[in-house]
């Protein structure tokens, strides 16, 4: 099938699918532990600031590039800037998405395993030791590989079905369920004795706890949670009609992302502080701390199952976008079957993800620059490839892409005046690239 003939069936489907691409591990798994390890409320404040002044403009930029070219990531830059150095940005995005999905799917496998175990009540037991349970699951090579394989299988199945019958169809179901489940967890969380201490930790900024590294992590978190920098949204917007306002769509996605991050903090930190647990637990926060907390509440097994299903839904809607950018790039270039490419891409991601899956067991002692394969992959994507990709995109749209086409795409579907466009355009040309450069230089101690 010609990839470009497949379109979103509705604006709502596009927004929910884009929000699904953004809301996943970044908002629910990574955001809470990064917040817990990097200053609580101060980190959350900086994260929101970066999301609004840098992430949102970049999201609009990726939408403009994709719909303006009507091509997936690699072809889009080649069409808009033929025979120029900027054509590499699409390849950068596809490579970034591939690396990201290789370790992302490992966590997806963990969540899938936990979800399956929680339904018959095998996670919360009378004598459960949750740190040991997490270690036994992640420390079992066969189990982590099986979880990885199952998670990628689900992704390949959905992506092989196309846009309307795959990504959009499932996102319309999963995203509303995500919000419903999350609100249930938050209502229960904030009613614990001592919950206010957790709420204050999360919402009351203490800027004395911030340093250059924290700020870089907040910037990376803003990019990670919005899925900008690897041109995922370029591919998504290439399937979009001209009557949809890109600005309002990007704003909707950004607001949903901040809202889910807020819900994640309100769901997790009140429970953590109510039971005297450790907010800076790290990547194991959800898997170790929360089951222990849920075990101490009535109907804890039910709430844990709801939370894990919510988490699985969020990860799936986000991972769909990563496999889609890879699949679309090959399908467009080679004019081959989407189904074949989706399954082959899934197999390649599975193979690439094996070292990350084994990082907590057989390859635990193997390090790259002092990090396991899993942690090194995460750092490479979150703190190098995403910020660099965002820098490339801001320079491309501000200095290379035809300004009239940029303005035309920005203006479709809305009545915004020229002043709004000019403000956004100058942000993209000057504020966004210089902020990324300054934060990066500050984080490594150059300034």
UniProtKB/TrEMBL annotation:
Source organism, top-level taxon: Bacteria
Name under which the protein is recorded: Transporter
Family per record: Belongs to the sodium:neurotransmitter symporter (SNF) (TC 2.A.22) family.
Membrane topology summary: Multi-pass membrane protein
Keyword Membrane: yes
Annotated compartments: Membrane
Transmembrane portions of the chain: 12-31, 43-65, 85-113, 133-154, 174-195, 215-234, 255-277, 302-329, 341-359, 379-399, 427-445
Cellular component, GO, one term: membrane
Alphabetized UniProt keyword annotations: Membrane, Symport, Transmembrane, Transmembrane helix, Transport
GO MF annotations, alphabetized: symporter activity
């Amino acid at each position: 099938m010609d990839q470009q003939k497949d379109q979103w069936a509705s604006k709502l489907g596009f927004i929910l699918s884009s929000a699904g691409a953004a809301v996943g591990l970044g908002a629910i798994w990574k955001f809470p532990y990064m917040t817990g390890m990097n200053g609580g409320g101060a980190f959350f404040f900086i994260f929101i600031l970066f999301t609004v002044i840098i992430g949102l403009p970049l999201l609009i930029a990726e939408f403009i590039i994709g719909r303006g070219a009507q091509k997936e990531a690699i072809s889009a830059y080649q069409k808009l800037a033929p025979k120029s150095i900027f054509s590499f940005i699409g390849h950068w995005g596809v490579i970034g998405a591939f690396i990201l999905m290789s370790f992302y799917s490992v966590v997806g496998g963990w969540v899938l395993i936990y979800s399956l175990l929680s339904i018959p009540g095998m996670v919360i037991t009378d004598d459960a030791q949750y740190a040991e349970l997490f270690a036994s699951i992640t420390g079992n090579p066969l189990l982590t590989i099986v979880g990885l394989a199952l998670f990628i299988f689900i992704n390949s199945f959905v992506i092989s079905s196309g846009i309307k019958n795959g990504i959009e169809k499932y996102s319309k179901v999963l995203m509303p369920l995500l919000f419903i489940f999350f609100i249930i967890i938050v209502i229960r969380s904030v009613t614990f004795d001592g919950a206010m201490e957790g709420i204050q930790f999360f919402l009351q900024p203490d800027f004395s706890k911030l340093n250059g590294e924290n700020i870089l992590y907040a910037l990376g978190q803003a990019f990670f949670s919005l899925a900008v920098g690897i041109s995922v949204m370029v591919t998504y917007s290439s399937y979009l009609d001209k009557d949809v306002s890109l600005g309002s769509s990007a704003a909707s996605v950004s607001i949903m992302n901040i809202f889910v991050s807020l819900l994640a903090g309100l769901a997790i930190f009140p429970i953590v502080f109510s039971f005297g647990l450790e907010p800076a637990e790290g990547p194991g926060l959800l898997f170790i701390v929360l089951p222990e907390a849920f075990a101490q509440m009535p109907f804890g097994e039910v709430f844990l199952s709801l939370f894990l299903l919510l988490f699985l839904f969020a990860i799936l809607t986000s991972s769909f976008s990563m496999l889609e950018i890879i699949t679309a790039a090959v399908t467009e270039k080679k004019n081959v079957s989407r189904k074949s490419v989706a399954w082959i891409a899934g197999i390649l991601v599975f193979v690439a993800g094996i070292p990350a899956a084994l990082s907590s067991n057989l390859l635990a002692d193997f390090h790259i620059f002092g990090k396991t394969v899993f942690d090194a992959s995460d750092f490479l994507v979150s703190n190098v490839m995403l910020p660099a990709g965002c820098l490339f995109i801001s320079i491309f749209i501000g200095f290379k892409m035809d300004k009239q086409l940029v303005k035309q795409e920005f203006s479709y579907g809305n009545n915004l005046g020229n002043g709004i466009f000019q403000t956004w355009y100058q942000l993209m040309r000057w504020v966004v690239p210089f902020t990324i450069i300054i934060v990066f230089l500050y984080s490594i101690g150059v300034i």
